[in-house]
């Protein structure tokens, strides 16, 4: 898994490791030890949601205070997604950026 820190402090883009063979493709979407090593942060998984949307669908803004709210992991297994992260944390060095 590869990690790239985004312009918003505390947000990362994760590129899963992909293994292809004659059977198809296997994605290792997330590994906790690698994430902790690369970011210095924990990502304790408590819930997994799956949403399948049609072309051109816009889903709403989701807000969470972290901690103690939710961290979010967005995965697009096929097609494309335009996911926007906005920093609404007052006092954050990247407040208001997206």
From TrEMBL:
Any Gene Ontology biological process: polysaccharide biosynthetic process
GO cellular component, one term: cytosol
Pfam families: dTDP_sugar_isom
InterPro entries found in the cross-reference section: RmlC-like (IPR000888), RmlC-like_jellyroll (IPR014710), RmlC_Cupin_sf (IPR011051)
GO molecular function: dTDP-4-dehydrorhamnose 3,5-epimerase activity
The family this protein is said to belong to: Belongs to the dTDP-4-dehydrorhamnose 3,5-epimerase family.
Protein name as it appears in the record: dTDP-4-dehydrorhamnose 3,5-epimerase family protein
Organism from which the protein derives: Dietzia cinnamea
Lineage: Bacteria, Bacillati, Actinomycetota, Actinomycetes, Mycobacteriales
């Amino acid at each position: 898994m590869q990690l790239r820190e985004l312009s918003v402090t505390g947000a990362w883009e994760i590129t899963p490791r992909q293994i292809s063979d004659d059977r198809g493709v296997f994605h290792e979407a997330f590994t906790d030890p690698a994430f902790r090593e690369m970011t210095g942060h924990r990502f304790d998984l408590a819930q997994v949601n799956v949403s399948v949307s049609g072309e051109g669908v816009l889903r709403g803004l989701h807000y969470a205070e972290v901690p103690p709210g939710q961290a979010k992991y967005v995965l697009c297994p096929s097609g494309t997604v335009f996911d926007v992260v906005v920093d609404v944390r007052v006092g954050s060095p990247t407040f208001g950026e997206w």
